[in-house]
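Human: I wish I could look at a protein chain and see how it folds. This is the protein in question:
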Amino acid sequence: MTALTVSALAQAKRLPEGFLRELGVRDTASGVAIPYRDESGNVLFERTRLSLDVGRRFLQPSGVSLVPYGLDRLKASREGGLLILVEGESDSWTLWHAGLPALGLPGASAARSMKSEHVTGFQNIFAIRERGQGGGTFINGLRERLREIGFRGEAFEVSLGDHKDPSALYCDDPERFPERFEKALNHATLIAPEAGGQVKDSPLRLLNVRELLTLEIPPREMVLDPIFRERDSMMIFSWRGVGKTLLGLSVAYAIATGRDCLRWRASRPRRVLYIDGELPLQTLQERVAGLVGDERIDPEYLQFLTHDAQEYGLPDLGTREGQERLRPIIEPAEVIFFDSLSTLMRSAKENEAEGWVPMQEYLLNLRRAGKSTVLIHHEGKGGTQRGTSKREDILDTVIHLRRPSVYSGAEGARFEVHFEKCRSFAGQSAEPFEARLDATSESAKWVTSDIEAINRVRAAELFGMGMSVRDVADELKVGKSTAHRLKKQLDELSQRPTA
């Protein structure tokens, strides 16, 4: 069999042959010799590539310890504070040719070849997660190794979608590679510690008061002004049939198109992923069609992952395995909806606080990765969100949808919007209001009104019938103090002289 040559390898990788030879790559009788150097540039050993993709591809010299490929380029890479970790030499060549800082680990299970001095001086590390089981092995090994050597920056994993690795992405379209790779980096997700484990060896960052007050923190934009910001977690809950999913879909549509919803305004269009584990596919289609109508929307900005569209259903998000399966789908999204918690977290016991821990850690990791999340949940018999109250600990906004005191099923979607928790807003923005879906036009529209005004009209009718303050309070589902205030307002109005 003819030995592999530098020319054939360069052609297969769509790289200039001269570029590879400048790196010291050379032809030998058995294949292509690739020099591994230390940080000073001295050759430690040569690894021989025997073939492109068949049989035994590499020959490693015996008695030589594995080291990362590209150590001699680390000094220049540190100036930018960023390093990209890949598997092997060809991915390193691809990134170097594009002017990007890369370090190649010799195999998916070779994370231990990396030492603390190799990552010293870097603030951010991006690791390429290749498709298949090897990609998971690479990331898990890297997570453990970074913890062992005390890396103090942040590490992210990068998915390249349908492409196996940077070399494959480059070969697919060399001209578009810089743009496509940068997009992948922008959607990188934080490499989190193993679920349930504590990173005992990882140094904790302590801030004194001066450091805290002078820390430069990028401002968080409003996703849905004024109730929902970037990296926020929000919950919408209600009794079954009130309209939580319909409101969730409406909010998702508004965020994806940069439009208004109820009394809230989306600042700009954002990529939305709606994960639905509850509705039949036909019902979901009908509801979305009613909201969208004939309006055009960029399909990349509103995507759905539904239980009914999968051959074996959706994974259980109450498990680490289920969360990992969703990782490549979630990566491009800026805002993620989970509808509903009980159908997507099947293994967790709702009333036990410990059962919520895996999902809480998942949401915190998504927040650190820059994602905003919306949870759709059910109301319990006591009028609060169903299950453990621990769910609300990390939430920024909690919205409770309630049936109005007077309601008929023939009216369709009509409910009161109450804020049970509003961490970043107050005043008029936090006042409850009523919302009604007007489905008479081609695309459904929400109409809102003040609950106070509605209750005043209804209270006038009830007091006029001779009902007591307590009875009116029970009928309107408000406190006695509110009913008393309404009566006082009505009495004052009745005593005013008419013009």
The two ends are 107 Å apart (CA to CA). Residues 466 and 472 are 10 Å apart (CA to CA). The chain has a mean pLDDT of 88.
